[in-house]
Amino acid sequence: MDALAARCHRPSTRWLAGCAIELDRATLARGGRIVLDAVSASICPGEFVGIFGPNGSGKTTLLRALLGLPPPLSGAVRVFGRPLRRGNRMIGYLPQQRAGLADLPIRGWDFVASAWQGERWGLPLIGRRGQQQVMQAIDRVEAQALADRRLSQLSGGEVQRLLLAQALLGRPRILLLDEPLISLDPHFQQAIVALVRRIQQTEEITVLFTAHDLNPLLGVMDRVLYLANHQAVIGTVDEVVTDEVLSRLYDMPIAVYRIKDRIAVFAGHGPVEAEAHRHDV
Ligand SMILES: Nc1ncnc2c1ncn2[C@@H]1O[C@H](COP(=O)(O)OP(=O)(O)O)[C@@H](O)[C@H]1O
Ligand SMILES: [Mg+2]
Questions:
Q1: The predicted structure's pLDDT at residue 117
Q2: 195-209: per-residue pLDDT in tens?
Q3: Number of CB atoms found within 10 A of residue 114's CB
Q4: Ligand 1 atom closest to Cα of residue 210
């Protein structure tokens, strides 16, 4: 892993053998506007990368680009050395927009199964292989007790575990998790982070995990990817979360304070992670 990591961690204009994900001067747009401009970064197989940046900085755009939705305007995005293709079974995705799920009048098992697309899509027609996959995914997120309960009776953290099970269907090699901690209290946040870390380590899955606050992910992330001003910077927390690096990226004075085992990032008048990550800085 070390030799691989040394190769993978250097952004490059050519494909590097062994990368799980490579952005090679990739320009990504959404709604006709450029969101990320000629961004390069390489992510190794089995890495856990936390993705941060103000609202609108392109976290969701980046994850969607890895699904080919849409492909880059210029440059390249490669997954395990290959150009993107839509419907890539190697990638599991937990999308950001999840409003209204709690009102669905279905059981946990059916909810996970609804994300399985076998040759005959539909709940009653899910084949034996689909059923096995659904069962295994529910086991992997330790949600056996939720299978028979209705979504409307579950807490936010429990629904989040079933969403994670959906993303794990088909045994992906890469997990893209878009804001899985949003609107969870700290106890459930820690439970989800620990669960994702366990799955990532035992199954050697590459994880890209977006969040507003980096504190819940400290200690589990291998590296952070910060987005701002159409640019990206990737590295360890110690390399990236510094006054110098973040001030350059945000193009404004940023102050980083370490208080015991927590990190507070301040921009202008307030903390970046508490507020500015929710708004444009
Ligand atoms: N559905 C959409 N249509 C058009 N533009 C969008 C859409 N969603 C987001 N955008 C714009 O794309 C940019 C990047 O957004 P996004 O990737 O969602 O950022 P983040 O996930 O970091 O908050 C923002 O300027 C946002 O306004
Ligand atoms: Mg987003």
A1: 66
A2: 999 999 999 999 999
A3: 16
A4: 21
Task: Determine the Cα–Cα distance for residues 39 and 182; give it in Å rounded to an integer.
Answer: 26
For each of the domains in the chain, give its residue range(s) and CATH number, in order of start. Answer: 1-90+172-246 (3.40.50.300), 101-171 (no CATH)
Residue 276: pLDDT band (50, 70, 90) is very low
Q: Is any ligand 1 atom within 6 A of the Cβ of residue 60?
A: yes
More confident residue, 85 or 109: 109
Ligand 1 binding pocket includes 59 (Cβ within 6 Å) = yes
- Per-chain mean pLDDT for the chain: 86
Please name the residue that has the structure tokens 């069962």. 135
Tokens for 198, please give them. Answer: 């366990």
How far apart, in whole angstroms, are the C-alpha atoms of residue 105 and residue 87? Answer: 28
Nearest CA to ligand 1 atom 10: 30
**Ligand 1 atom with minimal separation from the 96 CA:** 21
Other CB atoms within 10 Å distance of the CB of residue 269: 7
CB of 61 within 6 A of ligand 1: the answer is yes
Phi, psi torsion values for 257, nearest 5 degrees:
-120, 135
* Confidence (pLDDT) at 114: 87
Average pLDDT over residues 3-11: 44
Pocket flag, ligand 1, residue 35 (CB < 6 Å): yes
Mutate-to-test residue for ligand 1 from 35, 227, 281, highest number of ligand atoms within 8 A of CB:
35
